[in-house]
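> forwarded from #structure-qc
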């Protein structure tokens, strides 16, 4: 009998570290460079919080000083519990000391956890883009890392165009990376900036880089111009790199960035690596992917790996019978592991496990609800959610509306008010000064308890006017509504072929002034009616969550 080799705690820790891969998300900057994508401050906050909940190690907020949106975001950053918050910028400029470079100063003035600085590593760009000597660029990298390291806890160096630079002048590309590492960079990130490198090249080149900078301090940042960003990222990890950068759903300029939604489950489920994402966190992957799409007002990619609606869809015939006998025939993982579901087109039995998981998130006693009469209610709710989502509702991006629907079916939500009617009027005219103006006015008739009310209010649009009229009636009765602010409003046309008569979905995000935000959804062929539905859910959610009794206030 052979005894197991004795392993010291240090050796065990080393083995564990060798399997640990750190995830860095750059959606809020790289993703914002996607054609047609413009993140608001509210969008950036909501996405950052979703990334934090998922278990991403680093969330990059953007570039301080680059634009008003990023400035506003860094002025009031989200409070992250798991992730480190990163600010992105450049190394110091040529001919200027790092202490007197306002671009560098802006990076640590916003007090991030991490600063990521991009610099040149391709001799061609140093000469053409910067117009400086090669050694000066190396000095700029070292100066910047050393200085910023005294201001924040962690510094990263993004070696821009590294692989192009290595192919033309490997000695110089490696010299830039070594300078950053020796200056104190926690991570030296190798960037395939134009996305032209193939997996076999990634393997060959990184095998040489590791001789200069250890893999435990190397990151990979790939673009998808050849469709290889995910493969290149996974190859880099297999060779020894221990940080992966990417974006949600592969957002990014041109063809996009490495898609973290595909990379994460491949690392964990296929390759056996550890990340900051637990097995329970991983079940939120599909939800996070779809939340992003909802915020961008676009349809999720049905064919997306792991999280698409078609990823585990099977049409009638031999495939279905085979899957029913043994899912491994046509499913490479269990869909539930990533929060997705099996979809049998001719007999859809999916959805229940995901709904049950959402119950746990909103604090419902799942075990008590899945038996007896409660079990029947759960079945009814599952079918209701599926029917409503088929009709156009989207609960992945409207957590508050989902919670209210669940409570209405399974328990009871008080009747805080009843809308009898509303009317919205828009007037567009020239005023006495000759200026073209648009005025909106809304009238509402409500019952609160046994009392009837009518209110009229003006606003800068029909939805704002309707919101103001509702508040006129409800705030005196329910003072807790006074701090509510509508922070985001999105409209999506679902039936584009119907023109101006199309079915419209409205998503509203609300802030209560105390650090709490929630999203609600409304659906109608009338945009004002859809807006009212989302507004109503937003108000009711606040009252219900606070335990406010119908017809009166706890204040």
């Amino acid at each position: 009998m052979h005894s197991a080799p004795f392993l010291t705690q240090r050796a065990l820790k080393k083995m564990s570290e060798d399997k640990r891969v750190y995830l860095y998300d750059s959606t809020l900057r790289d993703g914002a460079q996607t054609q047609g994508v413009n993140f608001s401050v509210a969008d950036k906050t909501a996405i950052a919080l979703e990334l934090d909940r998922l278990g991403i190690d680093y969330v990059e907020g953007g570039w301080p000083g680059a634009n008003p949106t990023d400035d506003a975001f860094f002025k009031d950053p989200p409070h992250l519990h798991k992730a480190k918050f990163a600010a992105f910028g450049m190394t110091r400029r040529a001919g200027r000391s790092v202490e007197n470079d306002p671009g560098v100063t802006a990076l640590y003035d916003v007090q991030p956890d991490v600063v990521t600085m991009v610099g040149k590593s391709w001799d061609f760009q140093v000469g053409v883009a910067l117009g400086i000597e090669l050694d000066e660029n190396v000095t700029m990298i070292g100066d910047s890392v050393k200085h910023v390291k005294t201001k924040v806890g962690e510094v990263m160096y993004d070696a821009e165009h590294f692989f192009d630079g290595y192919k033309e002048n490997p000695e110089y590309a490696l010299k830039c990376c070594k300078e950053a590492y020796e200056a104190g960079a926690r991570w030296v990130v190798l960037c395939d900036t134009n996305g032209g490198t193939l997996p076999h090249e990634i393997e060959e080149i990184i095998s040489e880089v590791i001789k200069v900078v250890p893999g435990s301090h190397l990151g990979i940042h790939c673009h998808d111009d050849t469709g290889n960003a995910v493969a290149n990222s996974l190859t880099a990890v297999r060779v020894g790199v221990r940080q992966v950068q990417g974006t949600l759903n592969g957002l990014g300029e041109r063809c996009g960035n490495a898609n973290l939604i595909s990379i994460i489950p491949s690392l964990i489920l296929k390759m056996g690596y550890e990340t900051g994402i637990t097995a329970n966190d991983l079940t939120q992957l599909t939800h996070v992917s779809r939340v992003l799409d909802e915020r961008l007002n676009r349809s999720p990619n049905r064919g997306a790996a792991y999280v698409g609606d078609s990823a585990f869809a099977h049409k009638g015939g031999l495939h279905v019978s085979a899957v029913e006998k043994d899912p491994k025939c046509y499913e490479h993982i269990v869909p539930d592991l990533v929060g997705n579901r099996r979809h049998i087109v001719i007999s859809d039995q999916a959805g229940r496990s995901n709904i049950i998981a959402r119950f746990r998130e909103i604090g419902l006693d799942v075990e008590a609800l899945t038996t007896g009469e409660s079990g029947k209610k759960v079945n009814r709710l599952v079918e209701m959610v599926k029917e409503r989502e088929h009709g156009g509702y989207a609960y992945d991006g409207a957590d508050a509306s989902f919670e209210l629907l669940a409570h209405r079916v399974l328990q009871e939500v008080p009747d805080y008010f009843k809308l009898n009617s509303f009317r919205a009027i828009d007037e567009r005219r020239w005023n006495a000064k000759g200026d073209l103006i648009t005025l909106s006015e809304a009238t509402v008739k409500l019952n609160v308890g046994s009392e009837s009310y009518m209110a009229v209010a003006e606003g800068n649009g029909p939805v704002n006017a309707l919101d103001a009229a509702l508040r006129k009636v409800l705030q005196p009765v329910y003072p807790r509504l006074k701090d509510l602010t509508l922070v985001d409003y999105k409209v999506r046309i679902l039936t584009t072929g119907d023109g101006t008569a199309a079915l419209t979905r409205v998503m509203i995000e609300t802030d209560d002034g105390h650090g709490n935000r929630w999203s609600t959804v409304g659906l109608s062929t009338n945009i004002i009616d859809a807006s009212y539905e989302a507004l109503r859910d937003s108000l009711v959610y606040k009252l219900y969550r606070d335990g406010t009794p119908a017809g009166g206030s706890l204040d």
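QC bot note: The CA atoms of residues 408 and 414 lie 9 Å apart. The radius of gyration is 27 Å.
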